[in-house]
């Protein structure tokens, strides 16, 4: 690593003016002055006139400092690193900052993935008539689930408020879990029995499953339908799904997923939200 110390006697090496050095580094004179005052990037000081001169070899030092600042290091941390740390200590701190940035990158990718998946689902609304069933080749998604404690009484969102809260808290606490898109599932067995109760709170993600908190989806093909909350008789949709599966000699491979995508308000401030329903299927043997 380029040394940070001031070689005052080496006038030939330390020959770049502050303006020249600032231009080479793409920075400002104020930044260099601040680094000098904080004793983390030391120029040669001409004793006859007080002018500051830098060495071209200090460019790498400037970018090391800039990188560490961008990684979240404070000026005191960098100063201590420069003046009091061994090579091993520098490696430890740098590796810890790399790990922090990797975690932050994962969190950012999780948010990007959530938005991509949400917009993919929203895009499906434009390609099919509301309430109609269609078979869809599904993208690879991972699923996180929180079982509903009192399933037999989970008929409406209000009945599962505590379960939703638990699911969302778990998603916030763990980097691998997504908060959006979120919904519920109804077991296929309950669907057949016309016992329309929710059994899980679920979230979907485009990120790979870790097989600990998130798991791969149950198939690649799904029977899908979309509607909004203005569709009063959801039971008709459930019966249409069962009828389609039976008529087309399909086998259900999963619970029925009911994804609540987004809440919107029209000009009259009427409230509506989109639902995306799908169940993984495959041909019967």
From TrEMBL:
Organism for this UniProt entry: Butyrivibrio proteoclasticus
GO MF annotation terms: DNA binding; DNA-binding transcription factor activity
Record's protein name: DNA-binding transcriptional regulator, MerR family
A Pfam family per the record: MerR_1
InterPro entries: DNA-bd_dom_put_sf, MerR-type_HTH_dom, MerR_fam, Reg_factor_effector_dom_sf
Keyword DNA-binding in record: yes
Gene3D superfamilies: 1.10.1660.10, Regulatory factor, effector binding domain (3.20.80.10)
Cited PANTHER family: MERR FAMILY REGULATORY PROTEIN, REDOX-CYCLING DRUG-SENSING TRANSCRIPTIONAL ACTIVATOR SOXR
Lineage of producing organism: Bacteria, Bacillati, Bacillota, Clostridia, Lachnospirales
Membrane-traversing stretches: none
